[in-house]
Amino acid sequence: MNQYHQLAGQLIMIRFPGTELDAATAALIRENRVRGVCLFRGNMSNQEQLARLTFDLRAAMGPQALIALDQEGGAVVRSTWVPAPPAAMGLGAADDVALARDIGAAVARAVKAMGFNWNFAPVLDLNNNPHNPVIAERSFGAEPQRATELALAWMEGSTSEGVACCVKHFPGHGDTHVDSHRDLPTVNKPLQELEEFEFKPFRMVGNRAPAIMTAHIIYPALDAEFPATMSRRILHDLLRTEWDYRGVIITDGMDMHAIAGRYGAGPAAVRALLAGADMVMALGTLDTQLETIAAIAVAIESGQLPMAEVNERLARLATLADAYPCQGRSYMEDAADRLVMAHGWRRSLTARGKPQRPAAGGKVRLVVRRDVVSDGVSEAGVPAAVVASMLGRLYDVDMVTFTDAETFDWSTLPDDGRFVFLASTSRLRYGPNARDSWKPDLHLALWNPYQALDIEAPALITYGFAAPALDAVEAWLAGTLEANGTVPVPGFA
């Protein structure tokens, strides 16, 4: 490979399939000096395997390796065997910066022990859109000042443990009706409104964030042609020049339909770098990664991407890698961190509409979705049998499952005097069939808090479905815990 390919390789982050570093990926990394890798759930099976994989990656990538994952909390986690962190909105419901800092530090200790040095968290998106299909409980809330204070505390906890954070999705993904994994959203707001809301957390955090991830969203008030990821007006002029941001700018995954289906992998990567990104997240196939490297190499060799700008980007990436070296650590805090996380989930628990507890030992019915598929961003939800098992420790449980809430005939549910729970275990909002034709005695909103607005029934909101979330629900049902959280977005009073 020539020098331009090796420069290009240092400006991209890749992914690959499987739980081992395969020969083709190792060759791609070594030949092109690729310094960034993002790992996903499919790359992980257990602690021993993952430690071996990240060790092999460090050996291939060298001392300035950047090995990343999305370990936000709630449903967006990649390693599921380490202590499970509450979702950001759960921490918003608890409204305690010390707790947010403790959670961020605990997340980082586990992340570091697995061999990572970069976590794509926390989310700075403000969620004022109840129909946002991808953010919801990933946001700390809707009030810019408080949401940012909580995010900063979480980030301070992480960086104190030697793990770099990457706030996302600049300049704001909270008020969209479209998931950019699937299509290209537009946020068509006046600039003043963007500055007072979407932009505010990113501006407040500023250079305290080691890195910022871009959003694949068009903001016509700034650039009517290109999404933020590819917009020089947004990345270079606004973020880098007007706001004087000096950390690393990395794109969101360029394989997402908002980009890949419209611009092509190579041209989009070059455009993102010209716009001001330091690193392109080339998460497609090996072929698209090679295409991306080749396109960037041509842009460097031709002078389209000036060498002075390339060196500036390499320097920022080197500074990040040097400040947060990629090296494993022992993890002696697992048991203690599980207590930290459990405390966070308990503090998050929120009641809406004065929910009542059924009598201990009574007969109840659980109505719950049958499948627990992933939505592509989050991990799969909790299986129906797990929820039934939790309730079964307190009650006589009859379980009824459905495949699709919009085609299920809710009138077929028996009217036999059992106390009825609805457990929501997916991110999907409910449509008119479920909303208008039936009402449970208690709604367990175990993922998307906005689902509690769909069903006219008292609700218990957890902001996630991890085991400690269910433990908190069980404690509330047993009368040993109160639900003192407050949903940090409008509309839940």
Write the layout of secondary structure elements.
Layout: H1 3-9, E1 12-14, H2 23-32, E2 36-38, H3 47-61, E3 66-69, H4 88-94, H5 97-113, E4 118-119, H6 144-160, E5 164-165, E6 167-170, H7 191-196, H8 199-205, E7 211-214, H9 232-242, E8 248-250, H10 257-263, H11 265-275, E9 280-282, H12 286-302, H13 307-323, H14 334-348, E10 350-352, E11 363-369, H15 384-392, E12 396-402, E13 419-424, H16 432-437, E14 442-445, E15 459-461, H17 467-478
Parallel strand pairs: 1-2, 1-9, 2-3, 3-4, 4-5, 6-7, 7-8, 11-12, 11-13, 13-14, 14-15
Antiparallel strand pairs: 10-15
Helix pairs in contact: 1-12, 4-14, 5-6, 5-14, 6-8, 11-12, 14-17
> Which band does the percent of strand residues land in?
5-15%
Mean pLDDT: 94
Spatial separation of the terminal alpha carbons: 61 Å
The DSSP helix count reads 17
Rg, rounded, reads: 23 Å
Which overall shape is indicated by the principal axes computed on the Cα atoms?
globular
**Would you count the extended β strands for me?**
15
Structural category is: alpha/beta
Q: What portion of residues is helical?
A: 25-40%
Task: Give the strand order, joined by hyphens, for the main sheet.
Answer: 5-4-3-2-1-9
Q: Mind explaining what this structure looks like?
A:
The chain is of the alpha/beta class. 39% of the residues lie in helices and 12% in strands. Strands 5-4-3-2-1-9 form a six-stranded parallel β-sheet. A six-stranded mixed β-sheet has the order 10-15-14-13-11-12, with helices on one face. Strands 6-7-8 form a three-stranded parallel β-sheet. Helix 5 (97-113) runs antiparallel to helix 14 (334-348) and helix 11 (265-275) crosses helix 12 (286-302). The N and C termini lie far apart (61 Å).
